Amino acid sequence: MQSLIKFLLTYSHINDTLEVMTRVDLKDILEKVKEDQAITISESECEIIYKNLPAITGIPYQIEQLFNNIISNAI
To answer: Alpha-carbon distance 33 to 65, whole Å?
Structure first.
């Protein structure tokens, strides 16, 4: 729920801030998302398997939101 609220607040401020594209390490983002969803992942007894994720250019909170959505939908 905290992540959802955080993302809604972030989304509501998109037009108010300058979106800066930066280098984003997808491994770091995925690790953060796994921490945020640790309870759900544990309760569902699923396993997230990945290797060799690249760094990309993007907006970090949008990439994090994307990963959160993908994992939530998959679970």
So the answer is: 9
Query: CA 74 → CA 15, 41, 42, 47, 67, distances in Å?
Result: 29, 10, 14, 11, 10
CB 33 within 8 A of CB 72: no
The amino acid occupying position 7 is F
Please tell me the pTM assigned to this model: 0.71
Contact 48, 41 (CB under 8 A): yes
Report the 10 Å Cβ neighbour count for 14: 11
Say yes or no to pLDDT of 14 above 70: no
Beta partners for residue 56, in sequence order: 24
DSSP letter assigned to residue 48: -
For CA atoms 48, 49, 52, 56, the dihedral sign is negative
